[in-house]
Amino acid sequence: MLQLNHINLSVSDVPALSDFFERCLNFKVTERRGNNKFAVLEGEDSFVLILMHGKDVTTASYPTMFHVGFIVKDEATVRATHQQMIAAGYEAPPPARIQRGGDPTFGFYHPAPGGILVEVSTPIVAMKET
């Protein structure tokens, strides 16, 4: 059986994106090398994210809607993550219903430092009926 071990992203600003993942998404930097050109981060679920400086990377380097997505358990967690980003000084758009052709979700996309788009969402079915 194959198991995903890590994802390696080439980004324009390793320190800024590392800081974003630590402050907003509860990752921990476990290793830094090369004058802040390389960082290994570990998520709460032991997922490993590697960030490497790409001197030619810009916000337009990745295809439109390429993103790193985080699925959370409920609407309250989406809202709490959004507030964590706001408190950290980022201008994340407010969470809303997202319909992309499949089942709807509740969440938001945020252009993080380093040229990466981040999504935080939860399936609508996980939301409490109000």
Automatic annotation (TrEMBL):
CDD domains documented for this protein: VOC
Family annotation (InterPro entries): Fosfomycin_Res_Enzymes, Glyas_Bleomycin-R_OHBP_Dase, Glyas_Fos-R_dOase_dom, VOC_core
Source organism of the structure: Tunturiibacter psychrotolerans
Protein's name according to its UniProt entry: VOC family protein
Signal peptide location: none
Residue ranges of domain VOC in the record: 3-123
